[in-house]
Amino acid sequence: xxxxxxxxxxxxxxxxxxxxxxxxxxxxxxxxxxxxxxxxxxxxxxxxxxxxxxxxxxxxxxxxxxxxxxxxxxxxxxxxxxxxxxxxxxxxxxxxxxxxxxxxxxxxxxxxxxxxxxxxxxxxxxxxxxxxxxxxxxxxxxxxxxxxxxxxxxxxxxxxxxxxxxxxxxxxxxxxxxxxxxxxxxxxxxxxxxxxxxxxxxxxxxxxxxxxxxxxxxxxxxxxxxxxxxxxxxxxxxxxxxxxxxxxxxxxxxxxxxxxxxxxxxxxxxxxxxxxxxxxxxxxxxxxxxxxxxxxxxxxxxxxxxxxxxxxxxxxxxxxxxxxxxxxxxxxxxxxxxxxxxxxxxxxxxxxxxxxxxxxxxxxxxxxxxxxxxxxxxxxxxxxxxxxxxxxxxxxxxxxxxxxxxxxxxxxxxxxxxxxxxxxxxxxxxxxxxxxxxxxxxxxxxxxxxxxxxxxxxxxxxxxxxxxxxxxxxxxxxxxxxxxxxxxxxxxxxxxxxxxxxxxxxxxxxxxxxxxxxxxxxxxxxxxxxxxxxxxxxxxxxxxxxxxxxxxxxxxxxxxxxxxxxxxxxxxxxxxxxxxxxxxxxxxxxxxxxx
Length: 595
Description:
Radius of gyration: 25 Å
Strand content: 15-25%
CATH architecture of the largest domain: 3-Layer(aba) Sandwich
Low-confidence stretches: 147-152, 160-166, 170-175
CATH topology of the largest domain: Rossmann fold
Shape: globular
């Protein structure tokens, strides 16, 4: 594919590709002990059937509909169906609490939900008044108690105005549960829905994706079709050197996250990639070996874990094998730095590639063309480790408010210490205080129901990202910190916690770290040890990092704390640490450290 086609909107893109590639594999998932695939043609038929049935059930243009499901084929089918009838999908994390779902329902005004199972349905029913519940794993005659007010019908409730404040739960009544099988049973061709979708303008609202909530209550980001299509076009141009075509993509990041939503939901399918849904993060290592993907998206935490495990395994090997691994790594780093190899190194290089690097690549399935890292800062040392071992890591940068991809490293010109260059069509500049500003079709329409927040974030067409950065030679961008996360010590020194936390978590002995010290004389750290490492190893790791930091940046004291997890609320579903919540949860520990 030499050029990227132009489509008016996302469902039109999906239906057009289905017409072009009816028999080409699109989606694959694991169920009943085996992998099952869905072709483009079958996808389009089911999406059109789903669109007709949702409309018959009362879903209209503009209605917000929550989708809460693990990554599975029903997810993109439902989303394409909703978009095709101009309803607005609202992706929600399966890890959300009832309170999280209540916020989404109140804020978005959604009155219909599509969920994967009865457990998630029960959570959403408890969270707020619903008119329509579709359960993917439900049978055709099942019912659930839905909190309808007396005299209301589901279709009426879908279009009720949003109450300004939470209301007390009304008494539950019985209502029919729509099963997924009934939604996709229509065998008629998709032509009518595809034709209808073709008239949706690129400026129309495509979806409402909520921010991760690391800095307060999640806000609904209004992404029009043009924003995601702009990302797709830019990603296609950026990745041209890889010559991607009939690739296999292993999808494991939540589809409700903007990064996975755009890349795995629309961009990669649009270039003919088969999307294979992993069985879950706990099965990721095994699924990589089975599926043998050619392309993946990853968050830095996954790369950090794999690197730690590789180094731990190497440490247990006999001395001669440890030396071989180190030699392979050293030569790889020299090539990465464009340092000339000696004659002996040139002779050894291909041998070490077969004996050492190939075994590390095999952990990813052995066919990986590239892994695209995003969602958080990737410590350069971690990226260089994989690049030196022959695994292409493309670090990028973005945020939900920008579709979400803003920049990424060209695969043939990687500078891993940066987040690459701006995608085609993205204007990027720095404000006087170093904040990154963005303009282009990728920018959101604003925050749902929050005009003041929108006005403060988009000024004269420029999206104020809240990230502090630098632009170097060739337009390569380096992120230095979050504007609001800068630590100001009692002596007036400004310190970047993100930089120090990244260095700490690059140490094999340290799994997670949060740096504190605002208003104090020096910095302290809350540290979670990596599996198999004790407090002595952690202390050595902290000391090693301190040697590479300025006096102001050094950690004066640290304490070991319990892991930050999604379950205890200290980690987002996409593995971002909620720094302020961690600090708040460990107030007593920090008070002792700062005495």
